[in-house]
Each structure stands twice: as structure tokens, then as C-alpha cells.
Amino acid sequence: MIDLEPITQPPARTALPGLSPQELSEWLTANQEPAFRAKQILDWVWKKKVTSFDQMTNLSAALREKLAAAFRITALTHAKTQGSADTTRKFLFKLHDGRYIESVLIPANPALYGEKSDRRTLCVSSQVGCAYGCKFCASGLAGYTRNLDASEIAGQVLAAEQISGERVDNLVFMGMGEPMANFNNLMAAIALITGPETLHLGARHLTISTSGLAPQIRKLADHPQQIRLAISFHGATDEVRNRIMPVNKKYPVAELLEALAHWNSTKKQKLTLEYILIKGVNDDLEQATILARHARHISAKVNLIPYNTVEGLEWERPALSHCRAFQDVLKQAGVTATLRIEKGHDIDAACGQLRLKQETAEGII
Ligand code: SAH
Ligand code: SF4
């Protein structure tokens, strides 16, 4: 909740990037300032990306003081950057309560966009930890701590642009957490990320990834913005999915597919089914045949990802030749299937890995 009380009340120290333009106008009015100042302040925060109130030179010193007393100017503190050989960079951010989250900045895939493309994708987190406990995932390992608020979600984009000096072109909600389980904050963050007065990134450049929360998929399908959706499928049958993704017991494959068919009825962009290939667990070629049937049924493309090893887990990726055989089954069934050779393998880029190391080192978990 954002505190809109005048500053005669104890200062809330809400993060400024969490306020919608309307909330900021309301706060200004409540604090005897003209509402048009909102546009100037939003410009400083979201367009010029300043990191101190003193840099807001077209505001009076008195207003700057009021703002500083009421708000933090950033939602996150940059704790560490890890770079990898392929120029993928991973940022570790400390939150106001001492917890950590991570975002990964990924350069354009030359195979998709051409050698000269300088497009960049940022992978953002939506929660501290994750309650869904998928058996293969570092984010699920330490359990769930809390939801991120809108300022902490949208603030990752701001911070990544501040640190790198580069513009983020695409956003994927594929970091730590289950974005659909944090629906209201997710939607508030998306309003900030796409809003013309704030970050102004096109909804088509946003992809939400979910482990398969069917009711929320339906809810997001009915939202007017043309956001993209990726589903962490990772198993073509209930038998395989139940073994590795507890969420499947609640929303089994058939129910998930129905929600995805509904998604198709309201959205233009193709769905993506993400499928991690884990040796001896979900890489049987029979799974590929069934997966192909599902993909065709909902006109989805498939993204195959050889498993990224996680410290403390015994899972392994299959041989590349086997991954290719799995891909061929899909292709022969007429499904578009890419085999993604994971970027950032050398910087713990799989979701939750860097944060897990940091919090373990600090004894938080
Ligand atoms: N909770 C959402 C959003 C996180 S996305 C979801 O599950 O979709 C993170 C993606 O990374 C998911 O597709 C997840 O399955 C995948 N992932 C998790 N651990 C991984 C690993 N060790 N190697 C490769 N991908 C992994
Ligand atoms: Fe959570 Fe997604 Fe990891 Fe599953 S894969 S534990 S839903 S972050």
C-alpha cells in the first residue's frame, strides 16, 4: 500500500518508483504542491533516471526536501554484477529488508536478430524465493519469503539501465519467483513499465513466464494489453509433470491446456512452451511426441533448454545429440522448436542461483 498522507505524518519512505502517475499527483496535492509537478518528477525518475533528489534541478529546494523525507528514490541497491564470456550480465540487488534478488541482462541472440543487433533482454524476478517448489529449480530450493512490490519489479529495469547505461528492449519475467502468484503487484509493475509517463516499453516486448497457474492465465488473457506468455511445461504428461512440478497436482495438463486455448482466443502472439531437458526425467522421446500434440493443439512454439546444473541438485542435462533427437520429433510433427543453448551458464544464470549463493554466504537462509 502506498501512503498518501501529507508529510506531517511520520514519513512512509515508500520507494518513489512504486507510485503510479495518479498516486504521485495525489500526494503532491495533499502536500500543497501543484499536480503538474508530477510530470517533472516522473521525468527525472523514469526518463533521466536520476539517483538523487538533488539532481531534480527544476524543483524547488523545499519540494525536494519534502520528497526526500517521504520517499526513497530507488527501490533497490546494487550489490554485485557478475559478467559472463558472452556478455550476459547478472545483477544482484539488495532490498530494503536485506533480502536479495537478481536480474540478468542478455544481449541479442545473433541467430535470431543478426550479428549487428544491439537489442537487449532483461530477465526480472517477481518474488523473493518461490513457493512452487519445482524439484529442479534453485529458486524453489530455499522456499518462499515474500512478494516483490511494483517498485521492486519495475525498479529492476530502471536499475539495470542505470548500471549498464544501455536501454532494455525486451523484458522477460523469468527470474526468481512465480509472477502469476503475485498478480496485483505484477499488474501494477506492468502499468509502470508500459506507461507513457514512466518506462514506456511496448506490451509486446514483455513476456510473462508461469509454471501453469490456470486461473491467472485466464485473468491475464482478459487483460487488454498484448503481453506475451511462456509456460514452463517441462513434462508432457501428468505423470512426468507431477513428479517434478507440484503445481501440476492443482492444475493438471488438461486444465492448463484449456486455459491456454482461452489465452489464444484473446491474444495475437503465439504461446511459447518452455521445456527443460533433464536426463532420464523428462527427455523420453515419447514425451516429445505428446508435447508435439499439445503444441499443435494450442498453436504454440516450443523452446527446448538443456538443464543448467544447480549446486545441491543431482539433475543433469542429456547429451546434445539426444536434445537434437527430441527437437527432431517436434519438428517432424510440424512444430516450431528451438534448442536454446543457455546463455550465462558460467554466471549461475539459471533462476535463483546467484541469490541463493549470496544469502547462504550471509547466513540468511
Ligand atoms: N516461476 C515462473 C517464472 C520463472 S521462469 C516459471 O517457472 O515459469 C524461470 C525459468 O527457468 C522456468 O522456465 C524454469 O523452469 C527454468 N529453470 C529453473 N531452473 C532451471 C535450471 N536449472 N536450468 C534451466 N532452466 C531452469
Ligand atoms: Fe518457482 Fe518457476 Fe522455479 Fe518452479 S520453476 S520453483 S515456479 S521459479
Name a few traits of the molecule.
37% helix, 365 residues, disordered N terminus, single chain, binds iron/sulfur cluster, binds S-adenosyl-L-homocysteine, 10-stranded mixed β-sheet, DNA polymerase, domain 1, two-stranded parallel ribbon
Model description:
This protein starts with 13 loop residues before the first strand and ends with a helix. With 365 residues, it is of the alpha/beta class. The chain has 2 domains: 59 residues, DNA polymerase, domain 1 (Orthogonal Bundle), CATH 1.10.150.530; 285 residues, Aldolase class I (TIM Barrel, Alpha-Beta Barrel). The longest helix has 15 residues. Strand 12, helix 12 and strand 13 form a beta-alpha-beta unit. It is built from 14 helices and 14 strands. The structure holds S-adenosyl-L-homocysteine and iron/sulfur cluster. The site of S-adenosyl-L-homocysteine (SAH) has 17 residues, from strand 10 and strand 12.
The Cα radius of gyration reads: 21 Å
Instruction: Using the 3D structure, state the CATH architecture of the largest domain.
Output: Alpha-Beta Barrel
User: For the largest beta sheet, what order do the strands appear in spatially?
Assistant: 3-4-5-6-9-10-11-12-13-14
CATH homologous superfamily caption of the largest domain: Aldolase class I
- Find the count of extended strands (DSSP E, 2+ residues): 14
What molecules are bound to this protein?
S-adenosyl-L-homocysteine, iron/sulfur cluster
Q: What distance lies between the first and last C-alpha atoms, to the nearest angstrom?
A: 27 Å
Basic shape: elongated
The CATH topology name of the largest domain reads TIM Barrel
